[in-house]
Write a sequence for this structure.
């Protein structure tokens, strides 16, 4: 339905127009003198000298008032009156006549004359009558106008009510619907007629019936309508394509009593007639609320519960276990080498892997157990049902086994390990946070001692954990207090029995623990930014250790240093390295940097460029731990790589499996094909050495020849070599 407000406004302007008159009389002098008198007040006057002329004028335009003579040639006044009546012309007729027979008068009145004057008449009286007629006319016009307005306003309200997105209704005293608007169809799936005459309670969701009853019985008055209430309304699912889906609709209801108003005394208390109300669909809002609650309690990536939910459940479980005297188990899970995967494959793939890990773990637990993702590659599992240590152990084993099947990332097989720390309530602690902290600590112990396994918390761990926390601050102190040192491990060409290279390996002379190996602290250093300071320190120390020694300078031995991913990613790399080399007086062609494949896989293009800059300056690049990453040999073709270091794990396989030996042969063959130097690292036995030599891989590093040694020992060996007395025979 359309409502035109403009039309209405136009019509309301009509009432201010001056009144229009038609004076009809065949007696010309009488007519003219009348017109002259009338014109003093009403300028719009038209004249007609007989009935015919009058009718044709009336057809053409509208007159507010007609002063009509009865006796005229060519159609009398009667006939004009009849015409006006038949055609339902809106006008007021005052008759002036010589005839005053009662018949004539009554006939004229019957035909609709407003007033009748007998000739001769007093103009004052006529004028008075005209005023009255016009007054009446105006009142009628106003009435019509008001009527129009009312109709219009009624239309408008009906329109607004029916097209409101809210459900608007009226209930009678019995609580039955007497009116509902169109929204009922969209909101609840009912036709309006379905509700009329039915009791409201039929449409209230069962669980809300009581609430509704209270509301409807409360005959609230105007001043108390502010309060709203939330309810579920039953939907019509009979004709729906998805029956029983969303069979209730959440609404927000605002209702009030309807009272008759006493027109004489509006303040007087009047009688209750029923209830009027507006129900608003709040399903969208409810959905949003649900989503927000979901987000607050779930990890959006894996859809697992998050830390907040786990803490809630743990608290609940602890309360219950306290009452029943039972035990409960908390496990802390952390994926090993996940950072490596993120670095090599990028975050998108890393995220996919996490989702798959979550799915596999979820399959291994019972309903009632809570598996949560705490963030990154950390998960936590709560077994709230009474569980023995033995049972917990078998759960841990199942979880580990579930992740041991390979994952496929971008067509590559990837193996994942997980470290699990377990703590038991109430043995290990009765406090939520301590329980979690203990499981976390146990997990770290697994990582430190070998990875891929599980350990129960015990109080010996406490000490070890305290140590770890102090690593970062410890390293800062170590830099300041000169607790760091470099050990040197020679790389030997077995054909000539001469040292051709040396790897600089960091050691920490810890004030309490003595000489500490890098496996203990490098990972921590990489997680904090301190690694970059360490790298710089190493370069500086290598320069002072070796490049001040004449035998070493003369030997032509290359020194290799290990860099970490954050060194390479640094925005000033490689220029900073080149500058440092120059500053410390290290000749670029005597320096090699060792990096692992994964360090540059995430952004090959940028890395290639950086390595090219180094290479152009004469610095060599070695790929460390080759074969353990997720990349292939093929990229070596593109990169300015000089050396490949075959990882220790492959070398140790030479004696143990045919496959291992074949793999080493393949790596060596490929590198030779690409014209890249090869170093075998971690060579521990004669058999390994012989096999490698047969393959043509002559440069080796390992305990078989020499362990990493302090700078003094290393320089002694170099001095002996320069006099021709080589002494590298065993570690
Ligand atoms: P890497 O670069 O693979 O270094 C070789 C490691 O293998 C050294 O351990 C070395 O002592 C050990 N090794 C050498 N020959 C043998 C052998 O025959 N058998 C066995 N079982 N091991 C052998 P280290 O010195 O403990 O270093 C461990 C790792 O720490 C290094 O692995 C390297 O990744 C890192 N690292 C060491 N120094 C630095 C450094 O200055 N900066 C950075 N970023 N990382 C360093
Ligand atoms: Ca290395
Ligand atoms: Ca290595």
């Amino acid at each position: 339905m359309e409502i035109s407000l403009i039309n209405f406004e136009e019509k309301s302007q009509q009432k201010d127009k001056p009144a229009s008159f038609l004076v009809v009389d065949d007696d010309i002098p009488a007519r003219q003198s009348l017109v002259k008198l009338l014109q003093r007040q009403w300028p719009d006057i038209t004249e007609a000298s007989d009935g015919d002329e009058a009718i044709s004028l009336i057809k053409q335009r509208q007159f507010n008032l007609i002063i009509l003579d009865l006796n005229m040639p060519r159609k009398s006044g009667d006939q004009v009156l009849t015409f006006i009546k038949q055609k339902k012309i809106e006008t007021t007729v005052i008759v002036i006549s010589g005839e005053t027979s009662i018949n004539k008068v009554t006939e004229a009145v019957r035909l609709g004359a407003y007033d009748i004057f007998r000739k001769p008449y007093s103009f004052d009286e006529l004028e008075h009558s005209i005023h009255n007629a016009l007054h009446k006319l105006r009142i009628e016009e106003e009435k019509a106008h008001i009527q129009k307005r009312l109709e219009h306003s009624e239309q408008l309200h009906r329109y607004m009510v029916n097209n409101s997105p809210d459900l608007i209704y009226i209930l009678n005293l019995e609580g039955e619907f007497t009116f509902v608007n169109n929204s009922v169809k969209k909101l609840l799936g009912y036709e309006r007629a379905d509700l009329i005459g039915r009791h409201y309670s039929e449409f209230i969701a069962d669980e809300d019936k009581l609430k509704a009853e209270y509301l409807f019985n409360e005959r609230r008055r105007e001043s108390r309508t502010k309060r709203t209430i939330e309810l579920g309304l039953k939907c019509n699912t009979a004709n729906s394509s998805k029956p029983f889906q969303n069979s209730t609709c959440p609404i927000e209801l605002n209702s009030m009593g309807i009272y008759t108003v006493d027109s004489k005394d509006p303040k007087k208390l009047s009688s209750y007639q029923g209830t009027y109300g507006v129900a608003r669909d709040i399903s969208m809002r409810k959905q949003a609320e649900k989503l927000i609650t979901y987000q607050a309690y779930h990890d959006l990536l894996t859809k697992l519960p998050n830390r907040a939910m786990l803490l809630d459940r743990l608290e609940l479980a602890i309360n219950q276990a306290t009452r029943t005297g039972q035990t409960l188990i908390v496990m802390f899970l952390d994926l090993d080498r996940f950072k490596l995967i993120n670095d090599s494959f990028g975050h998108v793939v890393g995220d996919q892997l996490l989702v798959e890990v979550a799915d596999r773990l979820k399959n291994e637990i019972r309903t009632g157990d809570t598996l949560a993702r705490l963030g990154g590659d950390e998960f936590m599992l709560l077994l709230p049902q009474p569980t023995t240590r033995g049972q917990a152990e078998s759960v841990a084993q199942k979880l580990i086994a579930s992740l041991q099947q390979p994952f496929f990332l971008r067509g590559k097989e990837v193996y994942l390990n997980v470290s699990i720390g377990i703590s038991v309530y109430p043995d290990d602690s009765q406090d939520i946070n301590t329980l979690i902290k203990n499981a976390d600590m146990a997990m770290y112990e697994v990582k430190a001692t070998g990875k891929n396994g599980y350990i129960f918390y015990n109080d010996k761990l406490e000490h070890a954990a305290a140590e770890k926390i102090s690593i970062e601050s410890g390293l800062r102190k170590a830099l300041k207090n000169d607790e760091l040192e470099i050990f040197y491990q020679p790389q030997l060409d077995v054909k000539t029995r001469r040292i051709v290279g040396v790897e600089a390996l960091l050691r920490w002379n810890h004030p309490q623990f003595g000489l500490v190996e890098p496996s203990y602290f490098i990972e921590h250093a990489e997680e904090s930014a301190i690694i970059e300071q360490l790298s710089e320190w190493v370069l500086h120390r290598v320069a002072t250790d070796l490049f001040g020694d004449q035998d070493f300078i003369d030997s032509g031995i290359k020194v290799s240093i290990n860099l970490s991913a954050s060194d390479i990613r640094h925005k000033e790399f490689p220029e900073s390295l080149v500058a440092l080399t120059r500053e410390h007086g290290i000749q670029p062609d005597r320096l090699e940097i060792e990096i692992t494949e994964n360090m540059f896989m995430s952004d090959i293009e940028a890395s290639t460029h950086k390595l090219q800059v180094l290479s152009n300056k004469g610095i060599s690049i070695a790929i460390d731990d080759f074969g353990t990453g997720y990349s292939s040999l093929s990229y070596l073709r593109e990169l300015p790589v000089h050396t490949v270091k075959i990882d220790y794990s492959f070398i140790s396989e030479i004696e143990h499996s045919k496959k291992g030996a074949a793999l080493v042969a393949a790596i060596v063959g490929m590198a030779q094909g690409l014209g890249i130097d090869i170093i075998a690292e971690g060579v521990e036995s004669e058999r390994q050495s012989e096999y490698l030599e047969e393959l043509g891989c002559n440069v080796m590093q390992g305990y078989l020849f020499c362990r990493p040694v302090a700078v003094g020992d290393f320089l002694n060996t170099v001095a002996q070599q320069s006099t021709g007395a080589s002494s590298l025979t065993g570690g």
User: Anything to note?
Assistant: The chain has four domains: 8-146, 164-288, 298-457, 470-722. The first helix runs from residue 5 to 11. The longest strand covers residues 498-510. Residues 489, 505-506, 517-519, 522, 538, 562-564, 594, 624-625, 648, 681-684, 701-703, 708 surround C2E (ligand 1) (CB under 6 Å).
